[in-house]
Amino acid sequence: MKLKITSILLLAVVASFVAFTPKADVYKIDLTQSSISWEGKKFAGSHTGTVDLTSGNLDFNGKKLAGGGFVANMTTIKTMDGGTKPNAGLDKHLKADDFFGVEKFPAANFVVKKVTGNGAAVNVTGDLTIKGITQSVTFPATLVWNADKSVTATAEKIVIDRTKFGIQFKSKSVFANIGDNFIYDEFTISVKLVAKK
């Protein structure tokens, strides 16, 4: 009988803890102020460009980042190389099956799984899905609270190994005899998310 009462009390304590766990505040990403840029390198040089965001949110407990994520529209890949005129030929190749296969996989997404650190500087770990393949990535990010009560989350350099997502075109680690005609496995993205409650 004493064991039963103890179990009931324990369940009540757990239930009350769950009931009073504060619910995270959801901040919706402003697509007009948020952006994703990318850089890919090859032996003979590099390319830079952008991809548009479709949606996203950041979840906060007070001012502590607790979760969130975003979706990128892979059909909007643009090669800019520092200018304003896209490289239509390269864009077409990046959208093809050799690279991101956007006809079959029009979206890529990231979901926050863990955040460490306090204040403005944090480390974010989450699941990145490209071409239907999900891999864990970790990167540093900076949080800035703005005067209008929005928050800006910036990750200057997220390093992604494309071969882990089935993108092997001209990869030296896959095609050992490719010589100097290779593209580096790792590319980087920079993400700026401006969100408001």
3D structure, described in words:
InterPro entries: Lipid/polyisoprenoid-bd_YceI, TTHA0802/YceI-like_sf. Residues 26-196 form the Lipid/polyisoprenoid-binding YceI-like domain. It comes from Pedobacter frigiditerrae. This is YceI family protein. Keywords: Signal. This protein is mainly beta. The protein has one domain (23-196): Lipid/polyisoprenoid-binding, YceI-like (Lipocalin). The chain contains two helices and nine strands. It has helices at 2-19, 88-95; strands spanning 25-29, 35-42, 45-61, 64-79, 107-116, 121-130, 133-145, 151-161, 183-196. Strands 1, 2, 3, 4, 5, 6, 7, 8 and 9 form a nine-stranded antiparallel sheet that branches. A hairpin with a 2-residue loop joins strand 6 (121-130) and strand 7 (133-145). It is elongated and about 55 Å long. It starts with a helix and ends with a strand. The relative contact order is 0.18.
Query: Into which percentage range does the β-strand content fall?
Result: over 45%
Q: How many separate domains?
A: 1
Query: Helical residue percent?
Result: 10-25%
Largest sheet: 9 strands, antiparallel
Q: Please, what is the CATH homologous superfamily?
A: Lipid/polyisoprenoid-binding, YceI-like
End-to-end gap: 49 Å
Shape: elongated
Number of helices: 2
CATH architecture: Beta Barrel
Q: Structural class, judged by helices and strands?
A: mainly beta
SSE string: HEEEEHEEEEE
pLDDT < 50 runs, ≥5 residues: 1-10, 12-20
User: What is the count of β-strands?
Assistant: 9
CATH topology: Lipocalin
What is the C-level CATH assignment?
A: Mainly Beta
